[in-house]
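Protein: Chemokine-like protein TAFA-5
Species: Eleginops maclovinus
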Amino acid sequence: MQLLRVAWALTGAAICCFLLLLIHSRLLKEGQLAAGTCEIVTLDRDSSQPRRTIARQTARCACKKGQIAGTTRARPACVDAGIVRKKQWCEMVPCLEDEGCDLLVNKSGWTCTQPGGRVKTTTAL
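Structure follows.
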């Protein structure tokens, strides 16, 4: 009798998981992003100049209310809209863990400085 109860419980759990997956797949149709997530759409690199690489990327984000597309840990992410509005770019933690963040003088972007002294500059459009 106990074995039968366990079997029914496992069957019910399996059916429940299957239904949740089915509902989830219907809600998130192909090409849609889950709320609060981003994906890189295009990434172009130009290394034609010596000792300098210019990279441009376009990201697509589905941000929640009060958020806007930004950068966290060198990846596209949804960040608080106030950070972008005030141009306090370093508050969104755009650099990698071992890098230091500094605002550009005109607040048009930020720099990430690596321990070896290499500097990556990012400007916001």
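Remarks: The helical segments are 2-27, 81-86.
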